[in-house]
Amino acid sequence: SDAKGRKNKVQDGNGVRLLTNGSLEIKNVNLNHAGYYFCLSENAIGSISESHMIYLSAVPPQLHKKFQNNTVQKGDSVHFKCVAHGDQPMTFTWYINGVAFNENSNTNDPFGQESISSPLKSNCINRYVIKQSNDDGSVTSEFAIKKADRKDSTSFICSAENSYGSENATFSLMVLEKPDAPEDVRIAGATNRTVVVEWTAPFSGNNPINKYILQYKLIA
């Protein structure tokens, strides 16, 4: 039975397997396996039941999502949500492109609040903010970017940790924008009838460049 006392018939899957001899095998026990287990045996004469409880007293962090791709346009707001179950206290560390994010200054709040003196823990640095909250047995850490920029096209890792272990979730961000102007435009060759113009391909804005427009001006 689950936390609300509802009885559900055990079926194979999610690490659970019902053996032919009536035994129940559970591999890689996690929070989803916690609860009371009732075994009922019956025949034409009658029935008998037995119950056992699985109580997890030492649970490492278990994240709701392990990987997520995100694509936004330059200037958009971005929100990453890292939801973890497990024993508390639990701490979160965010990594930007493999480097731990240092929450040591308060500036703008990407969540749009005028003040960060809210019940949620809030730490801001430049355009970034982290907030943490507890809700119905889980802990949530949110990472927000007020205005996504080119340098934000990278990976953001949320690492949840308690006394019994840790687990990571990766959020991949791609910021789309207009391409830069071509660089090093030059005449590579010329004849009486043709001119060859070359240039160095610019930053594409994380989107394929569809075409280049070449303009010229006649000199009288």
Q: Name the helix and strand elements from N-terminus to C-terminus, one letter apiece.
A: EEEEEEEEEEEEEEEE
The whole-angstrom Rg is 28 Å
Task: Provide the CATH architecture of the largest domain.
Answer: Sandwich
User: What is the average of the pLDDT values?
Assistant: 81
Would you identify the CATH H-level superfamily of the largest domain?
A: Immunoglobulins
Spatial separation of the terminal alpha carbons = 90 Å
At CATH level 3, the topology of the largest domain is Immunoglobulin-like
Sheet with most strands: strand arrangement: 5-7-12-11-10
Total helix count?
Answer: 0
Q: What percent strand?
A: over 45%
Count of folded domains: 2
Choose one word for the global shape. Answer: elongated
CATH class of the largest domain: Mainly Beta
pLDDT < 50 runs, ≥5 residues: 105-124
User: What portion of residues is helical?
Assistant: under 10%
Taking the sheet with the most strands, its summary is: 5 strands, antiparallel
Helices and strands: which structural class?
mainly beta
| Overall number of strands | 16
